[in-house]
Each structure stands twice: as C-alpha cells, then as structure tokens.
Automatic annotation (TrEMBL):
PucR C-terminal helix-turn-helix domain sequence ranges: 242-299
UniProt cross-references to InterPro entries, sorted A to Z: CdaR-like_regulators, PucR_C-HTH_dom, PucR_C-HTH_sf
Species of provenance: Nocardioides szechwanensis
Gene3D superfamilies the UniProt entry points to: PucR C-terminal helix-turn-helix domain
Domain of life the protein comes from: Bacteria
Entry-linked Pfam families: HTH_30
The protein, known as: PucR C-terminal helix-turn-helix domain-containing protein
Length: 308
C-alpha cells in the first residue's frame, strides 16, 4: 500500500461517521486530518495549521485518556484552551499506542454501525502506521554510564522505555539517529556511551544526555558532523555586526559595561544586539557551555582565515 493509505482510512471513517477527524501521533504531531462540515473548534484549527497540537492542549487531552485502552474515550471541554469536548480513539499496535483519532463530541451517540466502522479503522490504522514506522525508522542507541550493554531503539516509545529502564541515578546517553550498518552502528554506540559518561562526570549535562545537545563536547571530540553554531549569522543581513558584538561580549567575559565601551554603544543598544543574537542563534547566551561553544567557534573562524 502507498503512503496515502492512512489518509484514505481516515477519510473513509470520516465519511462513515459524517464527522471531521484528526489523527495525531503520541507526541502530538498531526499525522492526517479529514474535514466534514464545520464541526471544528479553535484548538483543532490551530493544530491543523501548526501541523502539531499545542503543548497545553496535548497535556489536557492526555490527562483524560488512558493510552492502554484501545476504545473510544471522552475528553471534557476546556474553555480556556478554546477546546470543545471530544472523543478519542487510541490506536494500539504491538502493545503500545501508535496514534490517536479525535472527533468532536456533540452529544450525539454513535450507532452500532458507527462503532463497527471505528473498530475496522482502528485495525487498519494500526497495521499501516506500524508498517510505515518500521520502513522509515532510523535507529538510535541508548547507553548507560555503568557499562551495561547498549540498547538499539527505532521509535520514540522505545526510546522512552529504554531510558526509563536505566537504574535510578545512572546517567544515560542517547546517540543521533542513524542508518543501520556496521560502521554507522559503531559510531552510534560511541556517541551514546560518551554522552552517558560526560553526563555522569559533568553536573551541568542532564541525563538523558543527547549527543546532538552536547555542544562544546562534540567540538572537543572533533566531530566532523558538528554543525557550525554561527551559521545562522551568515544568513542574517546584520550578521557581521552581530558577530563583532558577540566576539567582544565573549572576549570580555560577558561584561556589559566593558563591551558597550569597546563597541562605543549605549548599553541599551548592546542589550538589543544581545537579544537579537539570542534570537538568531536560538541559543541561551546566559548558559556557560553555550558561551564556551560560541567563543571557540568565533576564534576557530579567525584561525581558519590565517592558517590557510
């Protein structure tokens, strides 16, 4: 079956029930939707436009849904979230939740024929989503700092279970996603093991430690895939000015008064530039490890220019 089959099943169920439906992943990502009439609320419209459910709406819905039960369940309305009452069908496969089907609850009971259609659709979606997940999965490795054998996971649910299985107080490391294969597998194991060890050794690195979030430690490891943290500045029209500001600020250990004096700026102008830097880089300039990574990246660029 093709990639459109999940949408086909949802459309067919929407036709049978004569109701609009949305299909979400367990993490709140929108997988598909099927509109029938005007039975929508602002929360649903927002999720369709964003392609994901807002975190507060997702939390409210899951507070009222048991993911271990594959039957229709009711979620009450929440006026502050602009969310109407709705029913949820938990789609389960291999003893876990793979998706959630949502329909607004207008109080009209479902007929036996409607419930039969729901059951058929649940089975079809479980089969299709599980198959698609297997075909598209990229593997990650989860390791612990106590040298237990690492675990290989393919889904977010498997990742959560592997992390939860670690003994209390034991640091956990998670590799980047990667394709199966001997060489790639060895690299992923190394990433996970190093992430676990640095989390155990450095209190500023929380567990589970994801290799992708290790910042300066990836640079120290000479990771060729380490992205340039300054790349976003290159794409910004104000990039050169912001880069000059960043270097002065880091050279002077974050001293705002000294930085403003060096750049001949009023402090309010400097604060504006620092806010712009944080926004363009999407990084927290108050984080010591972030500052270290950025400072090294700035000096690396200078070194690269003079060492060619």
């Amino acid at each position: 079956m093709g990639a459109g089959d999940v949408q086909d099943v949802l459309d067919s169920l929407a036709d049978d029930l004569d109701r609009s439906l949305t299909l979400d992943g367990p993490e709140g990502d929108l997988l598909a939707h099927s509109i029938r009439g005007d039975d929508s609320d602002r929360a649903r419209v927002s999720s369709i436009l964003r392609r994901s459910v807002a975190p507060d709406v997702h939390a409210w819905q899951l507070r009222h849904v048991d993911l271990t039960i594959g039957t229709l369940q009711r979620v009450p309305a929440n006026a502050s979230l602009e969310l109407s009452a709705r029913r949820c069908l938990v789609v389960r496969a291999q003893d876990r939740c793979v998706a959630l089907v949502w329909l607004l609850d207008d109080g009209t009971p479902l007929t036996d024929a409607d419930l039969d259609a729901v059951r058929r659709a649940s089975g079809d979606l479980a089969r299709l989503l599980t198959g698609r997940e297997r075909r598209s999965a990229r593997l990650r490795v989860v390791a612990t700092a106590d040298d237990r054998p690492p675990a290989v996971v393919a889904t977010e649910d498997e990742l959560r279970r592997a992390v939860a299985a670690a003994p209390a107080g034991t640091a956990v490391g998670v590799s980047d996603p990667g394709e199966p294969g001997r060489a790639a597998g060895a690299a992923l194991v190394r990433q996970a093991e190093l992430a676990a060890r640095i989390s155990a050794d450095d209190p500023s690195v929380p567990s589970p430690a994801h290799w992708s979030a290790l910042g300066i430690y990836r640079r120290l490891d000479s990771d060729p895939a380490h992205p340039d943290p300054l790349a976003a500045l290159d794409a910004s029209p104000s990039g050169p000015m912001l880069l000059e500001t960043l270097e002065a600020y880091l050279d002077l250990a974050g001293d705002v008064r000294a930085t403003a004096a060096r750049l001949r700026l009023h402090r309010s102008s400097l604060y504006y530039r620092l806010e712009r830097l944080a926004a363009v880089l999407t990084m927290d300039l108050g984080d010591g490890r972030v500052r270290l990574e950025l400072h090294l990246a700035v000096k690396q660029r200078r070194w690269d220019r003079v060492s060619r």
